[in-house]
Amino acid sequence: MAVPTEIRHRASALLEELPGESLVKAVEFLETLSHEALQVSKSPKPSPDEAALLQIIQRRLSSKEQDRLAYLRQQNDMGVITDTEHQELLMYVERVEQQDAERAEALIQLAPLRQVDLKVLIKELLPTHSNVA
Known about the structure:
The chain is an all-alpha fold. Helix content is 77%, strand content 0%. The protein contains six helices and no strands. α3 (48-58) runs antiparallel to α5 and α4 packs across α5. The longest helix has 32 residues, at 83-114. The model has no long low-confidence stretch (mean pLDDT 85).
């Protein structure tokens, strides 16, 4: 995507206005951004197999479903859950457990595709919290 000329001119004008110490910091910042952009452009696009596995690994409950699950868990913890709500809670728990099993299988398949250790992949791709925990 081309950056409009006026944005480049504005950036140049701002650089011209900076005092020496700030200019050094600005150049360091720009170098960091440039390096990051270069790294992103060099990183290979995932294969279709990888993309499918990543989709499974990243699948989560929607925020609305997570809120509902949290509410049902709270009702259960307080001992005021209805039978209908309890059945709904069990369905959510089963769904999350199924997603976790599919996620684990996808991670196991993805590790050799990327030629990385499974532990490294888990740290890279999984959040530190769970849908149910």
